[in-house]
């Protein structure tokens, strides 16, 4: 009798361990000053709501994108959020990892106030820093550069604020609402093309008219996406559950800020560029054919 009980317990244990919902998924993000941190925090908060999902997700921070990815094959994490530059540099050398989805877009904006004749100064938000490396190839040297912290200054004549982030970000919208003299400048086509050549993880992008205060026309710009990455052997059930949950949140009119920028259509440009999880590739291709 005791032997039967022990055998039955072992069978139940093996069955529990083999089901896709047996343990929490670990989501890895960057530090507290990154979009991946904000996205992960919002995701886990929603995921913990009663009845939202039968799969638990927990969240951990790993500052170095390379270490973040290296933890996945070692089963020290299941999902990781990666910036566009790191995805371009790291993913091709990691065949065991696959993209689950492109996430929110970061789009480039140039903001000015008054005339830009004479001496210039670039004011950079943190995510725009890498783009200044190309500036020397587009003008006669690099203008003086000042890094911005959380607080943005009043723009003076000759100053150009370069923003690389989600167009719907509350900080950007609030800045434009409270500074009616600030204007959105359109990147010249030659500048866009040069930046695309120097930064292959960028794509042409558009900020639709009326997305921002006083924006009456579409703005042609450049964009880069964050990515959600997993092991390629993540079960189809778990991949489907994660994707379904993320895009359900994205459909909420008053959902978390970064989720409002998500679109399944954003994946079309990346399906041939990166190795996608089989379940994700099937879902996005089916969506495109509808």
Q: How would you sum up this structure, described in words?
A:
With 290 residues, this protein is of the alpha/beta class. It has helices at 2-18, 35-47, 65-70, 84-90, 170-178, 189-198, 236-250, 278-289; strands spanning 25-29, 57-61, 79-82, 97-113, 121-124, 145-147, 159-165, 182-185, 203-207, 219-231. The chain is globular and about 60 Å long. It starts with a helix and ends with a helix. The model is unreliable at 5-18 (pLDDT under 50).
Fraction of residues in helix: 25-40%
Q: Which parts are unreliable, with pLDDT below 50 for 5 consecutive residues or more?
A: 5-18
Put simply, the count of helices is 8
Mean pLDDT comes to 85
- Strand composition percent: 15-25%
Structural class: alpha/beta
Tell me the series of helices and strands, N- to C-terminal. Answer: HEHEHEHEEEEHEHEEHH
Given the C-alpha coordinates, what overall shape results? globular
Radius of gyration: 22 Å
Note the topology:
Blueprint: H1 2-18, E1 25-29, H2 35-47, E2 57-61, H3 65-70, E3 79-82, H4 84-90, E4 97-113, E5 121-124, E6 145-147, E7 159-165, H5 170-178, E8 182-185, H6 189-198, E9 203-207, E10 219-231, H7 236-250, H8 278-289
Parallel strand pairs: 1-2, 1-3, 5-6, 5-7
Antiparallel strand pairs: 3-10, 4-7, 4-8, 4-10, 9-10
